[in-house]
Design goal:
Blueprint lengths: L9 E2 L5 E2 L19 H10 L5 E3 L4 H9 L4 E4 L13 H12 L5 E4 L5 H9 L4 E3 L2 H32 L18
Parallel strand pairs: 3-4, 4-5, 5-6
Antiparallel strand pairs: 1-2
């Protein structure tokens, strides 16, 4: 049996893997290649007209390099804590990454967003969007689609309440001035 997925490698009947057409020319390609270099990103950019968003950027230096190598966006992520659970929380990384790219490309963040106030903090730190993972999976596991919808309603209500309490009726009005960092 062969699984044909245009954006992944293909598994063969013998359990072997062969490269997908999408990744032809990028040897050993996976969604999160362990041997990725900036040359690899350069080649990827030349091979596609699609937007390239780099996930897992966690330093200002890598953010600058991502911008210089043509990344169309950055997703700050610690991959759900699976790879870097004892390092800095993603929310603490947002300001330096945003500053490093100088608003030339969008910065998104995921990891650790459990409440609407967490989303507010990420947006106030300069993220253009916030991803959630665990909360919606908890809703899905408990109540299916209705659970996911309810989790999203709760997060949206909490974000709206936080915005009102901070005097920011629109997302565009959320700025770093609304944050106070410890220390």
């Amino acid at each position: 049996m062969s699984v044909d997925v245009k954006y992944r490698t293909r598994a063969t009947a013998t359990g072997g893997r062969r490269e997908s057409l999408m990744f032809r020319g990028l040897s050993g390609t996976r969604f999160n290649p362990t041997n990725a270099t900036w040359d690899w990103v350069d080649r990827l950019k030349k091979m596609t007209s699609m937007k390239v968003v780099l996930k897992g950027v966690e330093t200002a230096e890598d953010a600058r390099l991502a911008r210089e190598h043509g990344a169309d966006g950055i997703l700050i992520s610690n991959h759900g804590g699976r790879a870097a659970e004892t390092l800095r929380p993603t929310i603490d990384i947002v300001p330096e990454v945003v500053d490093a790219v100088n608003n030339q490309i969008p910065v998104l963040v995921d990891g650790g967003v459990r409440r609407g106030s967490d989303a507010f903090k990420a947006l106030a730190s300069g993220a253009r969007a916030v991803g959630i993972g665990r909360p919606y999976t908890w809703g899905l596991a408990s109540y299916g689609q209705e659970g996911v919808e309810r989790v999203l309603e709760i997060l949206n209500a909490e974000l709206t309440m936080t915005m009102r309490q901070c005097g920011t009726p629109t997302l565009a009005q959320i700025t770093r001035a609304h944050l106070r960092r410890a220390g």
